[in-house]
Design a protein that fits this description.
By secondary structure, the chain is α/β, with parallel strands linked by helices. The protein is built from 27 helices and 27 strands. The strands form 8 sheets. An 8-stranded mixed β-sheet has the order 10-9-11-12-13-16-17-18, with helices on both faces. It has a 6-stranded mixed β-sheet with strand order 1-5-2-6-7-8, with helices on both faces. Strands 25-27-26 form a 3-stranded mixed β-sheet. Helix 19 packs antiparallel against helix 20 and helix 21 packs antiparallel against helix 22. The relative contact order is 0.06.
């Protein structure tokens, strides 16, 4: 229905226009009285906004149709018109492109920033109403998004491509709705993304949004919100304003700004600089001057803000506009234009009069020499060069050249893009044929020397210039370039800003103002979001142990590696120290001193027993068994070195094997000693049995010790084969240390210690039975005391081995080893050494006599068995030799 309506409407317009001989818009648009044309072989249409205001002057319908008037000459429309004329003249001159005897022509009409006027202009240039019967093969449209839609729909009926040089609304990207629409400017989605990157670059996360209540404003804000969310930027408020804002709307807008005083950055998608100016003026009246305004190309480079009445309002303003590319040749051409050398008739005259605030003719528009205002004619556009320097001709220039290169490809027919590889007839190029070549056109532009081509949506890469409002010493606003945005940047650094050129706080400070809902979370903390608030409003909570954050506003803390831990501030992962005993540790030094003293005392007992080997008390202690026991104790005092040495797989195996085997060796000696004591002092046994036991034990006691020890060695080897003991790095038990430990299973301990447990129990039972030996013979009682402590240590060591980690386990194990060896040394050897080395000779003789008397009393009870066994009489010598 939409296209049917447009079709019949335009058909009526075309019929109306065909009845007229000129382009005067009789009874329709009074201000537009001609259509500038340049004859040529192929025509390019131009729809430009020569005027900025359109209003209905008569809708009474009593004397004719509704009358609409265009007024207020628009500088930008004149700039675009001259860009089209310059580019076509340059092409026809063959400066960069030779079209081989084909001349381009143009026909221009005024769009007046109005949908209806733009639609009538489209009908004019396509129906011959401007004096040219031939329709253009393509149209360059300078109109804004709000008025170009109907124009694009109209030319869609004839498949005529429309190349927009200023319309940026994203709705025209939809090729289902606008299949013939091209543009040389990026769409508003790209501009919204560019504004997001600007906000992000200055660290702002809390912004407000003002937009016009139409497609440009709503679609711009919606896409800004979508992209901003990806970068953690939140919208505090958004307000949509009518196209023309009344006083109530202005007051409501400023009230909203005052209510959200914490929002220091305002994003604007407002389609008129005049409406923005109204807001600024009200802000000035209410002394609101601490906001940063971020604008789009609609107003950020507008000359209306150069007035000194705006400098107080704006703390800072920054924004983007279409890439500023200066064509010096065209710039000189533009500045040299005068009413005498410009083929734009009354359009240029009105532009000239507005620019210099004068009248070319004193007595009206009649070109009478006597009415010429010489002063007005004497001006030059060079006088106003600064006012036009922000206008963009690059997009128009490239649009004209895109059409020209498409025609060039048709003329040369290098690649036939029609069916069967054919090319269009140069003398009868149809708009749809040109459109096919436009879609595939590629060329190097003549200003930036970049590759130009349209993408799949008939659009170009997004390139913007970033502008900054710099406050001058004269309290005016100077618009300054501070950066650029390029969506095609391969490095991903789309935005480049020279921050050193920017001063904040009305040009007084280099410190970037802050705008956030919550204070940034410092390193060492993370953000905790509140479900009922925007994501930019959050609490800051410290990172958990072993987690860090190194930059502001991290959503999650990073886990430190296993061998690292977090510092007190949770901002850095530190390498864990290795938890092993060091030779310089106080406890290690104490253990080494203890071991050294123990070794020295043990070695001293060995020497004493050697030099006193003929003494009765040495003989009574079984010299060979005593020596074996002394060597076991000496080894026990040396073994703590294994627990102080940093662990390796071999050291770990020795830590378990050596104490276990050594314990079996000592227990074997104890077992034989106690058994011999029991046999000698057991008065209830037969003498023959006792004699045979003495002979066998004396003969095989070393062999028995070796067998018992060898059995334990076999069990240890079997345990290591079945359940290997390896070094293990424990990063879990301690936050700040890596514990290097020997990892052994409970089965390994069962294999290694079960046999020792049996020996301990047997020795304890036998020692308990030997408690009734003569009072003067104390060795069995000493052994029973040692066994009691051994059982206690054994039972305590089991949970220590299973549950103790770090340095504590080897410390306790070494302590148990030293205690046990010291106890054996003290209980079994130091008393004897005292009697041998310290006590007087009389005491020694008396002691020997008491031992001999005790033994004689024992032998008396066995006299009845003497004859049966054939054993010689008991004597102290027998006591000594049998032990």
């Amino acid at each position: 229905m939409r296209f049917i309506y447009v079709y019949f409407l335009l058909k009526e317009i075309s019929l109306f226009r065909s009845s007229e001989a000129d382009c005067s818009y009789q009874n329709v648009t009074k201000s537009v009285d001609n259509c500038p044309i340049l004859p040529g072989d192929i025509y390019i249409g131009g729809l430009v906004n020569i005027h900025r205001v359109s209003k209905v002057t008569d809708d009474s319908l009593t004397e004719g149709p509704i009358q609409e008037e265009c007024s207020n000459p628009f500088d930008h429309g004149m700039f675009t018109s001259l860009s089209i004329i310059y580019a076509i003249e340059e092409i026809n001159a063959g400066k960069f492109l030779d079209l081989t005897n084909v001349t381009l022509g143009y026909m221009l009409t005024d769009g007046c920033r109005s949908r209806s006027v733009a639609l009538r202009g489209a009908a004019d240039i396509s129906s011959g109403a401007c004096g040219i019967e031939e329709a253009p093969v393509a149209v360059i449209a300078d109109t804004f998004s709000a008025s170009i839609g109907p124009v694009a729909n109209y030319f869609q009926l004839t498949n005529t491509p429309v190349i927009a040089v200023w319309a940026t609304s994203v709705e025209f990207t939809d090729k289902n709705l606008y299949p013939t629409f091209f543009r040389t400017v990026p769409n508003d989605d790209n501009q919204a993304e560019a504004l997001v990157h600007i906000v992000k670059s200055f660290g702002w996360t809390w912004v407000g949004a003002l937009a016009t209540d139409e497609n440009y404003g709503r679609l711009g804000i919606e896409h800004f919100k979508e992209v901003a969310k990806l970068y953690g930027i939140c919208i505090s408020f958004e307000m949509y304003l009518p196209t023309v804002i009344d006083s109530k709307g202005i007051n409501d807008t400023v009230d909203l700004l005052m209510t959200h005083s914490d929002v220091k950055v305002i994003i604007t998608f407002i389609n008129s600089g005049y409406e923005v100016a109204k807001i600024f003026e009200e802000c000035d009246r209410r002394k609101i001057n601490t906001r940063v305004w971020i604008g789009t190309d609609v107003w950020i480079i507008s000359r209306i803000f150069a007035s000194n009445k705006y400098y107080k309002v704006i703390d800072a303003a920054i924004g983007t506009s279409i890439e500023e590319v200066r064509n010096d040749d065209f710039w000189n051409y533009f500045l040299s234009r005068t009413p005498n050398n410009t083929n734009l008739d009354s359009w240029f005259n009105k532009f000239w009069e507005k620019t210099f605030s004068c009248n070319l003719f004193e007595n009206g528009p009649d070109k009478n020499k006597s009415s010429i205002n010489q002063e007005c004619w004497s001006h030059s556009l060079n006088e106003k060069a600064d006012e036009f320097k922000t206008y963009i001709d690059f997009t128009t220039y490239n649009a004209v050249y895109a059409i020209a290169y498409a025609i060039y490809n048709i003329i040369n027919c290098t690649d036939g893009l029609l069916k069967d590889g054919l090319c269009p007839d140069v003398n009868d190029i149809q708009p749809w044929q040109l459109m096919q070549y436009l879609r595939n056109v590629e060329f190097q532009d003549h200003i930036k020397n970049r590759q130009f081509m349209f993408d799949e949506n008939y659009e170009v890469p997004a390139r913007y210039t970033v502008y900054w409002w710099k406050r001058t010493t004269k309290n005016t606003v100077n618009i300054q370039i501070v950066g650029e945005y390029d969506s095609s940047a391969t490095s991903g650094d789309y935005l480049q800003i020279n921050e050193s050129a920017i001063l904040w706080d009305s040009g007084r400070s280099e410190k970037v103002p802050k705008s956030f809902c919550s204070q940034p979370c410092q390193p060492g903390t993370r953000k905790r979001l509140n479900n009922d608030k925007p994501t930019c409003c959050f609490d800051c909570v410290p990172c958990a142990n072993n987690r860090i954050s190194t930059i502001e506003d991290q959503n999650e803390c990073t886990q430190c590696p296993e061998d690292h831990y977090s510092n007190d501030n949770n901002t850095e992962c530190l390498m864990k120290e290795t938890a092993v005993l060091a030779w310089t540790d106080t406890v290690v030094i104490a253990f080494l001193a203890w071991s050294g003293v123990g070794c020295a005392l043990t070695f001293a007992t060995i020497l004493i027993f050697y030099f006193k080997k003929e003494c009765e008390i040495v003989k009574s202690s079984s010299r060979d068994l005593s020596l074996m026991l002394q060597m076991g104790i000496l080894t026990g005092f040396i073994s703590p070195i294994l627990f102080i040495t940093p662990p390796t797989d071999i050291i770990c195996q020795l830590r378990i094997a050596v104490p276990s085997i050594l314990a079996s060796f000592i227990l074997a000696v104890f077992l034989i000693k106690i058994y011999m004591v029991i046999k000698i002092f057991n008065r209830g046994k037969k003498a023959k049995s006792m004699a045979n036991s003495k002979i066998r034990l004396k003969k095989f006691r070393f062999l028995l010790v070796s067998l018992i020890t060898g059995l334990q060695v076999s069990l240890v080897v079997a345990a290591f084969i079945t359940f290997p003991v390896e070094i293990h790095l424990d990063n879990v038990s301690s936050m700040t240390e890596t514990i290097i430990e020997c990892k052994a299973t409970i089965r390994t301990y069962i294999y290694n210690e079960s046999f020792n447990l049996i020996l301990i129990i047997v020795c304890f039972v036998l020692a308990f039975r030997a408690r009734k030996t003569p009072h003067n013979y104390h060795e069995a009682r000493f052994i029973s005391v040692v066994m009691t402590f051994w059982i206690i240590i054994f039972l305590v060591s089991i949970p220590i081995h299973l549950f103790t980690v770090g340095e504590l386990e080897p410390i306790i194990t070494v302590m148990f080893i030293l205690i046990l060896n010291t106890l054996i040394l003290i209980m079994l050897f130091l008393p004897k050494c005292y009697f041998l080395f310290v006590a007087s000779k009389n005491d020694h003789t008396n002691t020997s006599q008491r031992i001999s008397k005790s033994f004689t009393d024992s032998c008396a009870t066995l006299s009845s068995a003497k004859r049966e066994s054939g054993i010689q009489d008991c004597s102290p010598h027998d006591f000594n030799t049998n032990l």
